[in-house]
Amino acid sequence: MPPDVVTPELFEDVRLELKSSLPENSYKTWIAPISFVGAELGKVTLMAPTAFVRDWVQRSYSTRIKQALATRAGGIIEIFILAESSAVAPTTPSAARGEVYPVTLATGEYTAPARPAGGARVEGGMSLVPHYTFENFIVGLHNQLAVAAGMSIANTGTRAYNPLFIHGRVGLGKTHLLQAICHGVLARNPDTRILYVSCEQFVNQFITAVERGSLEAFRSKYRQPDVLVVDDIHFLAGKDRTAEEFFHTFNALHTNNRQIILSSDSPPTEIPSLSERLVSRFKQGMTAELEPPLLETRVQLVLRKASQQGVELPPEIAQVIAETIQTNVRELEGAVTKVVATSILLAKPVTMELARQALSGLISDRPRRVTIDDIVAIVSERVGMRRADLQSKRRTKPLTEARQLCMHLARQLTRLSLEEIGAYFGGRDHSTVLYSIERVECRMAESPDYKKMLDNLLAMLASGSRG
Ligand code: ADP
Ligand code: MG
What we know:
Layout (H helix, E strand, L loop, with lengths): L7 H14 L2 H8 L3 E6 L2 E8 H10 L1 H12 L4 E8 L7 H4 L47 H13 L7 E4 L6 H15 L5 E5 H14 L2 H8 L4 E5 L8 H16 L3 E6 L11 H8 L2 E4 L5 H14 L6 H10 L4 H17 L6 H13 L7 H12 L3 H4 L6 H17 L4 H7 L5 H17 L1 H15 L5
Parallel strand pairs: 2-3, 4-7, 4-8, 5-6, 6-7
Antiparallel strand pairs: 1-2
Helix pairs in contact: 1-2, 1-4, 6-7, 8-9, 12-13, 12-14, 13-15, 14-15, 16-18, 18-20, 19-20, 20-21
The chain binds adenosine-5'-diphosphate (ADP) and magnesium ion (MG).
């Protein structure tokens, strides 16, 4: 029996069903932007904002969509998903060739409409880095959500993610991604007024405006752009007056349906001393995290970075570099540069031996200064607990176990005494610390997985490669 006609309303029902069954961010990224185009004889055509989203939905959600449609329409349904913009990686041709970017997108200034190549730099501004494009941004499991949202904004001008709040630790690509979105927005429409600033500049400009009595001008400048991009918004922490001003800037732009894009080293709720109302504004659009890339992606990153430097690395060497530097893309780049430079300097091909030599230099160049704060930061993140809880006197089982792990690591990696370690973790005495260390050793002996996890943490901390 042929299915009933699929109507836009019926598709809305399917969308609602997915909304209630998917995590919020997944829904917002993949399903919300899909629109209904038409239906005919059991064939339903949908539209995705980009090829990237289309491919993803096709792979991960088309079966569910089909089933949900079929249940409602009473028959087998085929779906076709089109992509509104087939450009996966929008960049200007000149940016792709690494030439001077034709449009100066100056920090603190509006972009001028497209100018001839080599266009003027705007006074006191910092231009977009020409190669910080989507094309040069490697997508992996660790950043796909942020990239998908950013590409949708760049390719379609959607306001579905407003604000887009991207967070992640240092060196994981926040600035690159923000600038890629700017490049993409400009490639699509060179007349877009983008205001791209670091939060520090926003703060400084505000202070100057207050001192000079030129708030009026400051406000009008920040209320005009179509797209406001502020890098490192966590810099607002503890700056109550500027944060308040930013709150009004935000509202004025948001009310006028202008796009706001922010980056931060932590999620909105974890930026210290930020007012509740600002936190809730930051959370109101889409929040996406940039996580440390997985090994596979790191290998890709290494290969790409080397080839950008004119060297084709053998895969096993890329693997070694990627295994050595685990949590920070900027350091990964540094390691590649070091290997390539060593090869040029010694006029030798890149062999495994040369790579190890170059990398060991990289690691021992840096004094190993693991602090107990590093340990708690990395463990709290790993186990999804708050630092404050690890340092508190509370004693739930998971907390106690995580705390014991921290104590064990602290004993191995720092010069702190048992007493000092105990004091740090809520004023516990040295026998508690000793007992904790023993517990961890027992667990290691019992479970190879636990030991592997601990070895990983040790390696990460010892290589100092977490941001
Ligand atoms: P953050 O602003 O988060 O500290 P950056 O954007 O400055 O990080 O990134 C650090 C370096 O790593 C930059 O050179 C950037 O080009 C590179 N990088 C980070 N993530 C990626 C990625 N996914 N693909 C390619 N390069 C990346
Ligand atoms: Mg940055």
